[in-house]
Design brief:
The structure holds 2 protein chains of 2 kinds. Chain A is of the alpha/beta class. In chain A, about 50% of the residues lie in helices and about 10% in strands. Chain A is built from 19 helices and 10 strands. In chain A, strands 4-5-6-3-7 form a 5-stranded parallel beta sheet, with helices on both faces. In chain A, strands 8-10-9 form a 3-stranded antiparallel beta sheet. Chain A is globular and about 65 Å long. The radius of gyration of chain B is 31 Å and the shape is elongated. About 5% of the residues of chain B have low confidence. The chains are: A alpha/beta, B mainly alpha. Chains A and B meet through helix 13 and helix 15 of A and helix 7, helix 9, strand 5 and helix 18 of B.
Chain lengths: ~425, ~625
Amino acid sequence: MKKRQSLQFVFSNKKNAKNICNKKNAMYICNKTIAMKGVVGAPARKEQFYPRPDLRAAILESIAAGEHILLTAPRRVGKTSVLFDLVDNPDDNIYAVYLNTEAINDPEVFYKDILAAIINTDLVERFGKFSHNVKSFITDWAKKISSVQLGTVEMRLEGHTATSSFNSLVKFLTDIKTEGKIILVMLDEFPFTLEHIAEKYGDEAVLYFLNQNRVLRQTPQFSDKVRFVYTGSIGLYSVVKRLNGTDRVNDLNEIRPRPLKKEEAAELFNRLLRAKTGQAANEETTSYVLSKISWLIPFYIQLMVKEMASMVRHEDCPIDLPTADIAFERVVANGDIYFQHYKSRLNKSFRNEQERALALELLSAVKKKERLVKNEAYNMAAHTKYKLTERLDEIIEVLKHDGYLAEESNTYFFYSPILKYWWK
Amino acid sequence: MSTRPFVYNPDQKSREQLIAEFVIRREVFEELFTEFREAARDIPPQHFLLAGQRGMGKTTLLLRLKYAVEDDAKLRKYLLPVRFREEQYNIGRLERLWEETAQLLAIQSTAYEDLYETMLIHEAEADYERICFDLLEARLKKKKQRALLMIDNIGDLFDKFPEIQNHRLRQLLMSSPYIQLIGASSRVLEHTFRYDKPFFEFFREIKLSPLSEEACHTLLRALGESYGETEKIEYIIRTHPGRIDALRQITGGVPRTMVLLYQIFADNENGTAFEDLQLLLDSVNALYKHRMDELKPQQQQLMDALARAWDAITAAEVLRLSKLYREGVQSNQVSAQLKQLADNQIVEVVEGPGRSKSYRIRERFFNVWYLMRYGKKQNYEQVQWLIKFFEAWYNTKNIKTVLEKQRETMRSGTYSYQAAYLRTMALLGNGQVAEDDKNVLKEETVEYLLKKGKRELARDIGAIGKKADTYARLTEGRYSQGYAKGEDKLTYLRESVLKDLENYFKEATAAQNPTNELHADFIFIAFAQEDTKQVIYWAEKLLSEHADHFSSDHILIVCMVLLRANQYNFLLEQFHAPNGILLQRAKPVYYALAYFMPDELPGVYQKTSPEIAEAVEDIIRTVKEAQAREGKPE
């Protein structure tokens, strides 16, 4: 698993970015204040999207280096939004194609959908950077595919007998001349695909499927033309490990989107607040709100803004600490139900009583200290009543996988402020 | 169907009526409508989930939004509200959702009239769901429109769909600009808070919380206006804000329950609000009964205790009221069970000072339903919620006016018998109403109900009102007062009737339907004449033939006479008679009898339950004193 440094150079002016810096993928932040609308749940698109230049730059740099990417982060961090940003604000040389595969349980459908997504004429037009030749090629391919474009596309090339969709995709990628552009295939929620294929066809089928995906990544005839990005909210490695298939994905460069930095979070918070109320919060209030959220992902910031803005508009409340407190109470309302569920769920996640006890103690420690450093967790696991140091990583992995904890820089904290508030 | 303002089923209101009555939740309505209007058309929109208990206004809000979209000349060309029925028994898979959408669109617009049939052509294909959606999306795209799916009880759909189809739905909602979803749910959905579920934190959740004080004022003003009581409401808001708050507490701030209560008390004309109440209760009966049936037996008993308490009570009080201590259940076990009920959103925890906890049934209307269905009539359990409203809403002066109006309306003859029954019961249980007024109301209500042919209800009023009063007197040690009335009666009879006893008996026995009062008189007379045989004769006649109409006062006094006359065996026989009424109606006497008959009823006296202990002791003392006075052996 390779890791890369984030891009160091961020410019405030696009022209300067191109002229001053030789890096092809230098990014710029637009200084124009955009009236941002918060969007909850669905990926943030276009004006809704809070730019993540570091992350975008890291992705583009990795692509430029010829790598395929695994984007791993807990849910709601903003992985999908970042992918859509590549579609909505395309890099000149990258034709980004997004596909959510969480509901696919058939490899045939998987490859068909990829091909259908790539040859989508609307998307091609929107990209607008292919030459006429490339566009013609794609259009011709679209015509070759017989049968009505309904449901799953029938892959029957004109003049040929029916071929597997995998082979069709391979042929397409082999034959297309992209003239230096890269087709970036972004597959969202890929681990769910693996799980669903496993349910339907069994583990062997999944391993074979992973092999095929590796072939798509490593075939020399088109490896310079296509890149793959896989994302997953449930960990790809945990799914693949269970199948003893980690060697089939060890060529991926793992990039871990992090939550927002405090300054970014503050900026997003006030941008959204200003858009809704016409005013921003002072530094003290901003800092206070962020400390309550602790896991600084856009999702929770949006929830807080929504409640505070409602109080400002409808209840005439000022933007201050007491308002923040009440808003937070509203965000976490009904959270006792969450807590009951998550607490009882530990019984399923940990059949071993000792492991469960350690998990509970870790969560209590995180609650008490706000953040728990890795070596503190190790120390707890080493206690004579547990002696579970060798199992600690896996226990933590389960807690992360199931949405209890998040990790940043070897520090653990509650993923959800709602759960954190109610945990006892 | 009622055509009065503020009926309870928003689906049955006309568009105009619903819009006119839409006075609360306006901010959230405006916010949502603005979102619909301003949503970008080329990217997938925000999807919403309205969350709140039954009666909080989810369906009303959905309908209001639907009408608002339809009334907006510009928006309606683009956004097509597709409202699904409250229960979607016909939708168990995602393709059925698309089919239903197609059919509902066809009703709105001819542009979609062939869509469903087109889908069906592909019914046999393995990827039918994909085909359905692709056809739907293609048609919407062609028309440059977006379908706004408005789905109540959306959690039921998520429960029914296979997991992979929930993934699929999420994927489509995330990617298609042509579909927008606004769902509603009365329960907190695991689908939205479980990290491993597809819809984890997917929707923008709009919580419809209990009404604030200000919102209550708004609602009451609107209600006042529709009933021509604007000034009255303004007066109450201005001078008695505590009443509003009390109403809010009783109803849990649930708009539907508030409207219901208000209408019950404002609607003096013919009391049809009570009929609406019955209809409403009937409509939820299956659902609520199912909810109770699903619980474990101990949990059912806990729920029963909570329902009867109405107000929030501690785990210790729940244990006491449920009597589970008899099975060795401890308070901490009750707490654990209550936590589980809270987890399932049936019970809510009310945090008190110093981390103390009380519990009450979360959905207040469920509590109302339970009391109305299973509450004991004897001690006003059935109308506990109405009594609380009365006490909160009216002061002593007002309550008298209410009572007078009640009587007047009954005299008009057009009053709903259900209203008469329930309101009278609530008024009888109200501490602000004077005893004399209660007695008058009670009598007139009994008479009214009998006229309406509702003998059982009449009996309940007659018995419960009196029995409750009698028990109240018993528990307050006032039984001797009731007995004193009997003594007065005896004196009266001695002075008046006994002088001309022969004629009195002649007239009485010649009467077509001798009243039970008359029979009681005979017992007194016989007792006065120390004719034990006659005492037994008339008592037996009374208890076997006229039990239905025998008031509790009379029963108790007759029992007292029998005790004073040492007729323990006869009395015991009456208590043990199959289908006898004594055990139901004179329980304290039974335990008192056990005191006098320790061999025949061993250990029974010692098992007297606390709530009637005082009454039992009162009876024993009175009998012993009377026997001592009369020089008879104890």
